[in-house]
């Protein structure tokens, strides 16, 4: 995203899908005199964003969302079941979500996730493949102890270690972090990254878990938002 446009108010002009199936939202800026130039407004007056880069100005009642929640899919799609997080995020992104809830696939972009966590969110849900010795495809929710995070250990630019990401986000935010919950799935196929070949695609138990993860996370989101509303 162009940082010069961060925080600007815009109106959605179109929602388009490219040849790879990626959805892009075309917007025009409020107060731009060139927005009504017809075909001429296509150049320099329309800007394209991924859906998760935009936030509605207000909810149905005219009030801004009282609780901002980020659902972040993490993992490597070229390492078999490690791709659970991105696949689950993609499935959830196709569902209608409450105001203030954003879904994004961060893949192995740990630095991006660390900065995004500090963008005013109250809660962050990480979707990840997490081995705990359970039956493959088992879903679980844990709340990591943020006070126990290591003091050092910045994530690599093209790797994803959630512990390092959380530690970096805490340092960048001067110790302040949103609440973090990890929705994990027990993998069947575990890879270290040292294998000579990549493995694209999930095992059957984990693929089935992606389908169960969508209503599971929707229920978790509803519970979080209800608790936040009660505390207001």
From TrEMBL:
<keyword id="KW-0378">Hydrolase</keyword>
<dbReference type="Pfam" id="PF01750">
    <property type="entry name" value="HycI"/>
</dbReference>
<keyword id="KW-0645">Protease</keyword>
<dbReference type="InterPro" id="IPR023430">
    <property type="entry name" value="Pept_HybD-like_dom_sf"/>
</dbReference>
<comment type="similarity">
    <text>Belongs to the peptidase A31 family.</text>
</comment>
<keyword id="KW-0064">Aspartyl protease</keyword>
<dbReference type="GO" id="GO:0008047">
    <property type="term" value="F:enzyme activator activity"/>
</dbReference>
<dbReference type="GO" id="GO:0004190">
    <property type="term" value="F:aspartic-type endopeptidase activity"/>
</dbReference>
<dbReference type="InterPro" id="IPR000671">
    <property type="entry name" value="Peptidase_A31"/>
</dbReference>
<dbReference type="GO" id="GO:0016485">
    <property type="term" value="P:protein processing"/>
</dbReference>
<protein>
    <submittedName>
        <fullName>Hydrogenase maturation protease</fullName>
    </submittedName>
</protein>
């Amino acid at each position: 995203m162009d940082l010069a446009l961060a925080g600007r108010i815009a109106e959605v002009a179109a929602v388009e899908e490219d040849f790879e199936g990626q959805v892009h939202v075309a917007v025009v800026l409020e107060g731009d005199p060139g927005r009504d130039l017809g075909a001429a407004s296509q150049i320099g007056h329309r800007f394209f964003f991924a859906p998760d880069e935009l936030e509605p100005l207000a909810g149905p009642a005219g009030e801004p969302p009282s609780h901002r929640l980020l659902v972040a899919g993490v993992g490597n799609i070229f390492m078999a079941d490690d791709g659970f997080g991105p696949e689950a995020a993609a499935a959830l992104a196709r569902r209608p979500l409450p105001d203030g809830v954003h879904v994004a696939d961060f893949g192995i972009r740990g630095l991006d996730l660390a900065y995004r966590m500090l963008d005013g969110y109250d809660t962050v849900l990480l979707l990840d493949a997490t081995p705990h010795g359970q039956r493959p495809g088992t879903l679980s929710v844990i709340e990591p102890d943020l006070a126990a995070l290591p003091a050092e250990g910045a994530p690599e630019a093209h790797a994803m270690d959630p512990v390092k990401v959380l530690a970096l986000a805490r340092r960048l935010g001067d110790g302040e972090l949103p609440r973090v919950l990890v929705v994990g799935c027990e993998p069947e196929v575990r890879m270290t990254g040292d294998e000579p070949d990549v493995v694209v695609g999930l095992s059957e138990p984990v693929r089935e878990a992606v389908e169960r993860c969508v209503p599971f996370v929707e229920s978790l989101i509803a519970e979080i938002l209800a608790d936040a509303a009660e505390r207001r």
